[in-house]
Amino acid sequence: MENWYWMTLVVLIGLTVRWTVSLNPYSGAGKPPMFGDYEAQRHWQEITFNLPVKEWYFNSSDNNLQYWGLDYPPLTAYHSLLCAYVAEFINPDWVALHTSRGYESHAHKLFMRTTVLVADLFIYIPAVLLYCYSLKEISPKRKIAVALCILLYPGLILIDYGHFQYNSVSLGFALWGVVGVSYDWDLLGSLAFCLALNYKQMELYHSLPFFCFLLGKCFKKGLKGKGFVLLIKIACTVMASFLLCWLPFFMEREQALQVLRRLFPVDRGLFEDKVANIWCSVNVFLKIKEILPRHIQLAISFCLTFLSLLPACIKLTLQPSSKGFRFTMVSCALSFFLFSFQVHEKSILLVSLPVCLVLNEIPFMSTWFLLVSTFSMLPLLLKDELLLPSVVTVVAFLVACVTFFPLCESTSEAQLQLTSFAVSVRRRLPGFTFLPRIIQCLGISCDTDLHILIRRKHRWKVCHADNCAHEENGFQMVIFFPHSDDASISQRTALGQEGTALHFKLDYSSTKIPV
């Protein structure tokens, strides 16, 4: 009962932060003629409410595709239609054909913000709670901490409640799918992920891990017995889900093709705006979009994306496990974000969701990545005047993670499973050792084995961190580093117990420090 009390408090904190952020400006507020994503979502409600289904994705006098034309799968359109019925009941002017274009008012803003909150309450937040409760081998308090940190992730809050989108719907369905397939509710998990994919096509970022994990389960059970039956059941579930979502568009061949053309607009190029991926970074030095033809860009993007995610997918298929599934989701989503075609800055949210799922296993790396992912969207957030809520939500998230997780643990190369990678890199770059040092030094306040290197009067001296406060003032330089076997100490003399000063001659990373 006490756990339910704390979990309820966590949900209330998450809702309070969300609603507070929603009081800030939204994308394109007061900026005609195109406005922003807020107007795009309102316009889709206008189109789906006033036009027949067969005209939703086609250009016409009533549906100018150049003005926020619908470019998401059918489930997004159905959601827009549902919201439009509610909007029309409250105020018909909000969805009036043509005359509602660019409509802005405090009442309408309240309505639109509420639709996001309701979607969160019914889809995303229950999925987060169920995932956290289903975690095994951790205490109830840790489950509550995981739920709090996931619900306080600033990137999703700022985009959905600040910039304005419904990312929590597709991510919520995907999370329901993760819970389902991880705990052998394979058909429900498949159905949930099909809903996610039919809400936003970017859920393709997570599609291969789902496919490989379920296929691996079938292989493990044997394709001549229970595995084959499971495979048939999953295939039927997927086909039935897609058929129901796409049924109005399967009546005519051109209808389905037009929807696909809208979902995958290859004419837009490799990336848009400022995206923290490979193509945008390379474009600073080499104008790929101008040098290479469009079909060559598409082919290179496909090949690099496929090759980068292939090893993790093969391993997951051969060795299916819930933990491997979550980490493969991280790897594949990141591969898509870094190398795939037509990437938006907001697509980093598709990487952040699986990273949230491994927060309990690698808290330091997960927290670091989630903070960086939020920072990568800073140009967009600044354009929407969301700097203050960005700072506040990032600080709140960081405080929660530092409070409830031992961020300084599991940060060595061996614990992060980076030993083989680091050794291979050091063969070519001997100075590469400073990177693990940075990781460990970021956790300086929690490291019980931390030592401090001090230079005083041409002498180097090492003392334990706990005893440095007792040293006299006047040292010239302080360098922080934890003890490690990577450092080659050619001569040292220990004086006393742990924490007592050490005098030595050090040869570390090809840097010699004289006594």
From TrEMBL:
The chain crosses the membrane at residues 110-132, 144-161, 173-197, 227-249, 298-318, 348-371, 386-408. Keywords: Endoplasmic reticulum, Glycosyltransferase, Membrane, Signal, Transferase, Transmembrane, Transmembrane helix. It is an enzyme of class 2 (transferase). It catalyses: an alpha-D-Man-(1->2)-alpha-D-Man-(1->2)-alpha-D-Man-(1->3)-[alpha-D-Man-(1->2)-alpha-D-Man-(1->3)-[alpha-D-Man-(1->2)-alpha-D-Man-(1->6)]-alpha-D-Man-(1->6)]-beta-D-Man-(1->4)-beta-D-GlcNAc-(1->4)-alpha-D-GlcNAc-diphospho-di-trans,poly-cis-dolichol + a di-trans,poly-cis-dolichyl beta-D-glucosyl phosphate = an alpha-D-Glc-(1->3)-alpha-D-Man-(1->2)-alpha-D-Man-(1->2)-alpha-D-Man-(1->3)-[alpha-D-Man-(1->2)-alpha-D-Man-(1->3)-[alpha-D-Man-(1->2)-alpha-D-Man-(1->6)]-alpha-D-Man-(1->6)]-beta-D-Man-(1->4)-beta-D-GlcNAc-(1->4)-alpha-D-GlcNAc-diphospho-di-trans,poly-cis-dolichol + a di-trans,poly-cis-dolichyl phosphate + H(+). The keyword Membrane applies. It is found in: Endoplasmic reticulum membrane. Its EC number is 2.4.1.-. It comes from the Eukaryota. It is a multi-pass membrane protein. The keyword Signal applies. Residues 1-22 form the signal peptide. Pathway: Protein modification; protein glycosylation. Belongs to the ALG6/ALG8 glucosyltransferase family. Dolichyl pyrophosphate Man9GlcNAc2 alpha-1,3-glucosyltransferase that operates in the biosynthetic pathway of dolichol-linked oligosaccharides, the glycan precursors employed in protein asparagine (N)-glycosylation. The assembly of dolichol-linked oligosaccharides begins on the cytosolic side of the endoplasmic reticulum membrane and finishes in its lumen. The sequential addition of sugars to dolichol pyrophosphate produces dolichol-linked oligosaccharides containing fourteen sugars, including two GlcNAcs, nine mannoses and three glucoses. PANTHER family: DOLICHYL GLYCOSYLTRANSFERASE, DOLICHYL PYROPHOSPHATE MAN9GLCNAC2 ALPHA-1,3-GLUCOSYLTRANSFERASE. This is Alpha-1,3-glucosyltransferase. The lineage of its organism: Eukaryota, Metazoa, Chordata, Craniata, Vertebrata.
